[in-house]
Amino acid sequence: MHTLTKYLKFIQIIGTEYQTHVVTMRFNFFIPFLLLLTTNYVLADEEKNNHTNNWAVLVSTSTFWFNYRHMANVLSMYRTVKRLGIPDSQIILMLSDDVACNSRNLFPGSVFNNQDRKIDLYGESIEVDYKGYDVTVENFIRLLTDRWPDEQPKSKRLLTDENSNIFIYMTGHGGDDFLKFQDAEEIASEDIADAFEQMHEKKRYNEIFFMVDTCQANTMFSKFYSPNILAIGSSELDESSYSHHSDVELGVAVIDRFTYYTLEFLEQIDKSSTLTLEDLFQYYTFEKVHSNVGVRKDLYSRDPKDVLITDFFANVPNIIPDSSSENESSNKYINLINLAMDQYNSNSKVSKNKDNALSPSVLSKSQNFNNIEYIEDTRTAISSSIKTLLVTSVVTLLCILFYLQEAESSKTFTK
């Protein structure tokens, strides 16, 4: 409403000086101004929905040495999102076991996801937020819903907002509608679904991309019902998810097939990549994964073909709006109004005599609205205005009624 007030004040200034020409002016000026006014509201709504920050929640729920691959799975995803720019302050890492320090590990302090051991996943600058017995169903639900006691450190909280895109990755042993934690308790699909609904009600996310690698993984998102959630799983109901290969010296499998091919795809991208989530989905085949990967899209508002991988896996600057950005946005459209006014002045059939010329006071007042450079190219903004006009019919109708009333008032004044 603040921007609308500025627009109406601008018209009031012009109308006061040119009461006799408002009716003539409306035909040349009304349409472009209406488009600009409509665009301002549409773009403001789009800006509100755009995400400004990315977070990752990465969870390995298994314990014991023979589940080495699950820790390697989640550490591989951790390395990927960090490589693409998401800082540790926006990554929550939950490791239920520490195989790096297991007495059976021939390479103490290291975890590998390939038998060539070229990349140590546990090596440099790893920050584990929850480990061992702190990785529980209760703590996972508390993390999502932010229901913590006051003394909970901020570094262990998911401090998201309505502009946050959240990538949630879970791996471990599961079954029909459940995932085991620590081989001692289970989380059900309904539990996660209800947690997501609380997040939605509390405006804790913009979009969620949920990925799970476990047996019968696709059942883990069957109960979801909140908006703007996209989910993918490694296997269907009654299907197992399989490991990719083993390390002979370690004596255990070092990564699962679904995660292996996810990483193989992600390794080819950087922060400027134009690859989409649909490209990732098409990369999975039964020949590679040995199970049927499932994707749930019905809750998601965008087509995966239009969603960049970097919308979830890479860093986005956390933009904090301030008064200057609001003024800058307002002035962009005021500049376009001035452009429409120039067009009116050049096309008007009214003779340009002294009575019709803009007075210095009007020029001074109008220039106060035009003190910031264009943010976008004028033609692009006008083109966007035309496209968005169709979806803002209600606002347009209100504007038409307003201007018709102004025109009638002007006719009465001139009589």
Task: Summarize the structure in words.
- It is a single chain.
- The protein has 415 residues and is of the alpha/beta class.
- The protein has two domains: 2-48 and 324-414, no CATH class; 53-313, 3-Layer(aba) Sandwich (Rossmann fold), CATH 3.40.50.1460.
- The protein contains 13 helices and twelve strands.
- It is elongated.
- Keywords: GPI-anchor biosynthesis, Membrane, Signal, Transmembrane, Transmembrane helix.
Could you provide a short overview of the structure?
One of its GO terms (molecular function) is GPI-anchor transamidase activity. The protein has 415 residues and is an alpha/beta fold. The chain is 42% helix and 14% strand.
* Mass-distribution shape: elongated
Low-confidence parts:
1-11, 13-29, 41-49, 349-382
Mean pLDDT: 80
Which structural class fits the helix and strand makeup?
Answer: alpha/beta
Q: What is the CATH class designation of the largest domain?
A: Alpha Beta
Amino-to-carboxy terminus distance: 33 Å
The CATH architecture term of the largest domain is: 3-Layer(aba) Sandwich
Family: Belongs to the peptidase C13 family.
Protein name: GPI-anchor transamidase
GO biological process, one term: GPI anchor biosynthetic process
Pfam families: Peptidase_C13
